[in-house]
Fold each of these.
Amino acid sequence: MQRFAQVIRIRPDKLDEYRRLHADCWPEILEMMRRQNIRNCSIYHRDGLLFMYYEYVGTDFAADQARFADDPTMQRWLAVTAACQQPVDSADGDGWAPMEELFHLD
Amino acid sequence: MQRFAQVIRIRPDKLDEYRRLHADCWPEILEMMRRQNIRNCSIYHRDGLLFMYYEYVGTDFAADQARFADDPTMQRWLAVTAACQQPVDSADGDGWAPMEELFHLD
């Protein structure tokens, strides 16, 4: 199992929409995430920051990440959530920025 | 089991020290955390932000949190780590600020 954490900003005027979207996440998205071997995934908010933690239980992370890239429902979900988000300044791309693990206790 | 996430800032000149402290965390601290019923605890860094994620497996969170408040080693650990940290603006106290869980997938 591999642990991942990522950070992104939420647009202030989109927090309520983002909260609603995730309180009632589309079942197809949850199903695809599980088939991507993602487990124990949580998203947290404070002060305009979003923090995501999850565990990957597969054996080919890149392949699993790419698995549903062409799925129309996944594309729609990523579009509506990306419209709420704003990458942190240091992010390389246009999405969630990986964080460095400093500590772990099992 | 209850999940928790918290956020705090790291003083820029203290990141290396904080990284070293946590890469080689004192065994007594790890032992006390386990006796506090904390499991799967990770701390992540990016852009001066620290995120902590952990799971609580006990039945009295407040009592477990207070269990080692008077322990000299715990007090020393909290002093050296607090000297590296800076609460986020919205924090109520002088330490880690709780985050709101927006999403969870088992």
Amino acid sequence: MTDTEKSQRHQKRMKRHKEVVDDKIQHADKDKGLLLVITGNGKGKSSSGFGMVARALGHNMRVGVVQFIKGAYSTGEEAFFRRFPDEVEYHVMGDGFTWDTQNLDQDIASAKKGWEVCKQLIDDPNIDVVLFDELNIVLKMRYLDTDLVLADIAKRAEMKHVIITGRGAPEAVIEAADTVSRIEDVKHAFRAGFRAQKGIEL
Amino acid sequence: MTDTEKSQRHQKRMKRHKEVVDDKIQHADKDKGLLLVITGNGKGKSSSGFGMVARALGHNMRVGVVQFIKGAYSTGEEAFFRRFPDEVEYHVMGDGFTWDTQNLDQDIASAKKGWEVCKQLIDDPNIDVVLFDELNIVLKMRYLDTDLVLADIAKRAEMKHVIITGRGAPEAVIEAADTVSRIEDVKHAFRAGFRAQKGIEL
């Protein structure tokens, strides 16, 4: 095959691809406040949520964040997004709870307190996007009732986006969601002896 | 089982879990500039990369970004991170290339130009983390030679982190990486007729 033939074949294939994509785009024309779920065992769930926070801020939207699990650690994302108190309402719940506290009652109380904060963000008409980081873990542990949580989320304003991260998303959450991504852990530096790196995991 | 028994059982299980996790953490004690790859068909690859950018900024690190594909669109992440020119060196390459230009030579030229910018960021001692957004697509299309790209990345300073996103990561990239996540598309609002939403996909 000559270079010209190769180039023409490429052009033809790309044109067909573009037509397919354009057609799909034309038929996806509705807007809606989405429920997004990022789950699975791989690295990147929380960071994906925080990337969407950055994206939303780029569109001058206001964002609410509730971090359920990482209360015991200081994280880069918290330090960074707390720079913008007028744009991001940032909450860290708990005390690094679940396996660190080893106290079921305290964990449940922390989770319930956390959900009250989430509900305020869901109801706040000035907030466009909410991120409930690691909520799936809390639901999986049954610290909160998944049906009640989903009912509260369903009552949100039409254009409000809700992002839920954390491994082990319950089936009911996946069913209720508009978009679900499952992150597979193909390989992790941790298993090669490298600890969590600032700017990557922390 | 009484509530007390339940609580004790929980405490015991959590204690065991904590011991396992603590043990793993103790044995992962090395530091290194990681090569991270986020691939797969699901939603969240680029946003995960941008979440790590936010995280790095929270640790006062300096970041370089090269976006290979989205040149034709204005995105929230670009608008947001361009707010911090002293902390983020932000480049958008190409012209929304691949299926929109339908010109193989032009696409290859754009890709090569993009990689020159990447190499400068790799070599810049003032940059701690680089994000090459959608580079996998460029490699998959063979617009760049994967072996050459990996050789350039391998030459980086010891503590520099490199994040590569995009579907279709070549096998050689996965092999060279320290951490690889594959995002599975479980469900996408697009297929239910909802277009890309600001702050979520854009």
